[in-house]
Design goal:
The protein folds into 2 domains: 74 residues, no CATH class; 39 residues, no CATH class. It is built from 1 helix and 9 strands. Strands 2-1-3 form a 3-stranded antiparallel sheet, with helices on one face. A two-stranded antiparallel ribbon has the order 4-5. A two-stranded antiparallel ribbon has the order 6-7. β1 and β2 form a beta hairpin.
Length: 114
Amino acid sequence: MAHFAKLGVGNIIEKIEVVSNDIAITEKDGVDFLNNIYNTRDVWKQTSYNKNIRKNYAGIGYTYDETRDAFIAPRNYASWILNETTCQWEAPVAFPEDGNDYIWNESTLTWNVI
């Protein structure tokens, strides 16, 4: 099955639809099929669970970045930085690898043990 993300204002993902691979032989075929069903001219971008295209699987509320050709989740915290390779948000301090459970503390910019 092929998955498609509907882009709204500001390239924010509004909806995800699934189209049979028999129909969505190409991305254009899937987009045309969806626009025919809904009788629209919406902008759709194919997305992939296994991240073969567009870096990340799209979700409602994600943004499609045309320059990076990637789906980007909303930022978790103001201090987090976008990893240009993965297009995922990362804390400015590495997650501790000591087996404990942590939660990010935005006011101190540290990981706190839960």
